[in-house]
Specification:
This is Cellulose-binding domain-containing protein. Residues 1-20 form the signal peptide. Pfam families: CBM49 (PF09478). One of its GO terms (molecular function) is cellulose binding. Keywords: Signal. The protein is of the alpha+beta class. The chain has a single domain (23-121), classed as Sandwich (Immunoglobulin-like). It has two helices and eight strands, in the order αββββββαββ. It has helices at residues 2-19, 86-90; strands at 24-34, 37-46, 54-61, 71-72, 75-78, 81-83, 99-107, 114-121. A four-stranded antiparallel sheet has the order 1-2-7-4, with no helix packed on it. The chain has a four-stranded antiparallel sheet with strand order 5-6-3-8.
Length: 122
Amino acid sequence: MFKKLLFFTLTFALFALAICDNSIKITQTLSSAWEGHSTWNVVIENIGDKPIFGATIVAESGLSLERPDNLWSLDSLGNNRFGLPSWITQNGGLKAFNGTHTFGYTNAQPTSAVFSATDIRY
C-alpha cells in the first residue's frame, strides 16, 4: 500500500512539474538607496526553449510607487500588473535560451518588491 501511495505521489509531482510554466526567471539588483527609498534593476530572463512574445509581470507585494513613472521599461496594465513592451513582440519576442529584458523601478521603501510572471505567450 505504501509503495502505491508513494508511486502515485511521485507521478502527480512529476506531472505537476511538467505542466508548470517556469520559463521566466526574474532577478533584482539594488542600484541605489536613500532615506527609505531604493532603486532596483530587474532582469527578466527567458530560460525556456521558445521565444516569449508576451507576459504579465505581477508585483505580488512590496511595490510602493510614488508616481507612475517610478517604474520604467514595462507597460502598465493597472492593479500592479505590467506587460512587456510591444517592441519585444515586434522584434521577434524575448529570445529563447537566455533572452533578457531589463526594467527598473524606484520603490518608496528600502526593500525590493516581489514579482512573478503569468500569462506567458509563446
